[in-house]
Amino acid sequence: MAAEKDKVLTGVAETLASQSLGDSSLPVNFHGNLAVVNYGAPWCHVCQHMLPTFCNLSNEYASALFIYADVDKCYETTRDVRYTPTFRFYRDGEKVDDFYGAGPQRLRDRIWLHT
């Protein structure tokens, strides 16, 4: 299962691990471009359903930064995440939008809206 997840994540610009986060802030100041953070978990079936779409969109929208944050490994960053998957959108370090749950088209629409 872990090998499948790593294979799927190859299209994502960045994957966060607990050691890369010193506090509750994410590296989301991406020079004015959009940063999309996918808070998910390997045990979450909906997360696994959305992950290929997330990866495909990361290739389609190359100017945006796509980050996957595993809620089990990034506790300091994800402690306020109540549902998985949760998608948050940042511009210039400020959160501009978020939603949770499934919806590949909804994710695509939100990314289009903010790019």
UniProtKB/TrEMBL annotation:
SUPFAM superfamilies: Thioredoxin-like (SSF52833). Residues 33-108 form the Thioredoxin domain. PANTHER family: THIOREDOXIN-LIKE 3-3 (PTHR47571:SF1). This is Thioredoxin domain-containing protein. It comes from Physcomitrium patens.
